[in-house]
């Protein structure tokens, strides 16, 4: 089935938040046009004013949520080297960090000389959350989405850190916010698109026989009252400086020795993208099954907007790379104790019209570090069968 594509980039009609104008140009492309008209000098001054309001007696000037990927690494480098801040670096370990990412992380942290805190939630809790969110939303990463954005907020409250600096604004990739909006990384944003429409209390009601409510605190966004009382400001750095991924990658490679990696289903030219997680290939495969496109469409669309690739070249890459079954799929199925047939059945119910989920797709190439990706015990069969039967009964 052919999907309608933006006439400028290659994003399809099934992309989240997308709309098209009378010329067939998508809302994300039009949003990027706004970016080029903004007064970035003024925005940078606003950032310096924000920094000047940091109390002088704070143990840390800011907190930086950090995976070790390109965006958080650039944010950390910019905060330390350009803004001269003392950050606390906080990592929410979603349980799928790749070996190369961990090497990058250690190298960067030592080079910049920063304090670092890492938190890994219980695997028993994570595997139950993965299965439940996959069944409900066709997205197994609820624990990752919510943990990455919630856990650092709790640390900031506990340690009384007044500023949290994130990376790119969401308007780089979606239309949830415009570049004209004053985007903050807050509860509104969290509920709008981070938590998939399921909060921690919802998750507890589904899984109360398997986990305790207190197990879900790292995935629970703090109340607005708690954040206001603590005087915490949480903003994307990309709201104050223009975001340019390729330029930023070049800087962190030169200054910090940061290195890229192979990612399933992604051309080698984009070896800087989503290198953190060995389940990334499964995420992109699910997106293809649900929406008819995956990461290559997203990456080449950015390059088209930046005049770094032609639309025709982008379409060739999409044909070559998208829609292939990742080797990591079989690790994922092991984790959630599900057959491939059951997996496809679930994903098909989450397909975005007018796309129909295809079948019998070719298996893609294994990344060189694939054998190092760990096998893990999955959810108990009885739990999986109960969850799957409940899901079927609701359909």
**CATH structural class of the largest domain:** Alpha Beta
Mean pLDDT: 94
> Which value, in Å, is the CA radius of gyration?
21 Å
Largest sheet: 3 strands, parallel
Write out the strand line-up for the largest beta sheet, numbering strands in chain order. 1-2-3
Helicity range: 40-55%
- Our count of helices gives 16
Write the CATH fold name of the largest domain: Rossmann fold
Beta content comes to: 5-15%
Class per helix and strand makeup: mainly alpha
Helix and strand pattern: HHEHEHEHHEHHHEHHHHHHH
Structural overview:
- Helix 3 links the parallel strand 1 (62-65) and strand 2.
- The protein folds into two domains: 40-239, 3-Layer(aba) Sandwich (Rossmann fold), CATH 3.40.50; 264-394, no CATH class.
- It is 46% helix and 6% strand.
- The protein has helices spanning 27-35, 40-52, 70-82, 99-112, 123-137, 142-159, 187-194, 200-207, 224-230, 245-256, 280-291, 295-305, 311-321, 329-336, 340-348, 381-394; strands at 62-65, 87-92, 115-119, 163-166, 233-236.
- The mean pLDDT is 94.
- It has a three-stranded parallel β-sheet with strand order 1-2-3. A two-stranded parallel ribbon has the order 4-5.
- The chain contains 16 helices and five strands.
- The protein is mainly alpha-helical and 395 residues long.
- The longest helix has 18 residues, at 142-159.
């Amino acid at each position: 089935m052919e999907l309608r594509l933006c006439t400028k980039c290659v994003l399809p009609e099934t992309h989240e938040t997308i709309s098209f104008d009378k010329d067939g140009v998508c809302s994300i492309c039009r949003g990027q046009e706004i970016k080029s008209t903004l007064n970035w000098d003024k925005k940078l001054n606003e950032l310096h004013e924000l920094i000047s309001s940091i109390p002088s007696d704070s143990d840390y000037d800011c907190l930086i949520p950090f995976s070790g990927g390109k965006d958080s690494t650039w944010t950390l480098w910019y905060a330390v080297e350009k803004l001269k801040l003392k950050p606390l670096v906080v990592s929410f370990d979603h349980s799928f960090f790749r070996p190369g990412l961990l090497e990058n992380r250690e190298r960067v942290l030592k080079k910049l000389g920063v304090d670092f805190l890492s938190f890994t939630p219980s695997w028993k809790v994570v595997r139950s959350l993965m299965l439940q969110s996959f069944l409900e939303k066709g997205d197994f990463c609820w624990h990752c989405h919510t943990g990455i954005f919630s856990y650092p907020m709790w640390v900031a409250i506990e340690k009384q850190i007044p500023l949290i600096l994130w990376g790119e604004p969401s308007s780089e990739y979606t239309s949830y916010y415009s570049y004209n909006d004053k985007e903050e990384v807050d509860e509104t944003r969290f509920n709008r698109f981070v938590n998939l429409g399921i909060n921690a209390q919802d998750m507890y009601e589904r899984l109360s026989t398997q986990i305790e409510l207190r197990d879900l605190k790292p995935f629970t966004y703090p109340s607005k009252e708690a954040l206001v009382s603590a005087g915490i400001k949480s903003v994307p750095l990309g709201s104050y400086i223009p975001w340019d991924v390729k330029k930023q990658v070049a800087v962190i490679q030169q200054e910090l020795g940061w290195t890229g990696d192979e990612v399933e289903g992604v051309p080698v030219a984009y070896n800087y993208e989503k290198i953190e997680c060995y389940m990334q290939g499964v995420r992109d495969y699910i997106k293809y099954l649900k929406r008819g496109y995956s990461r290559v469409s997203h990456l080449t669309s950015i390059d088209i907007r930046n005049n770094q690739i032609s639309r025709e070249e982008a379409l060739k890459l999409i044909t070559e790379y998208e829609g292939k079954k990742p080797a990591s799929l079989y690790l994922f199925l092991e984790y959630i104790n599900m057959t491939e047939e059951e997996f496809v059945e679930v994903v098909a119910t989450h397909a975005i019209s007018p796309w129909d989920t295809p079948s019998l797709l070719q298996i893609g190439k294994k990344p060189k570090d694939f054998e190092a990706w760990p096998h893990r015990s999955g959810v108990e069969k009885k739990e999986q069968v109960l969850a799957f039967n409940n899901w079927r009964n609701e359909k």
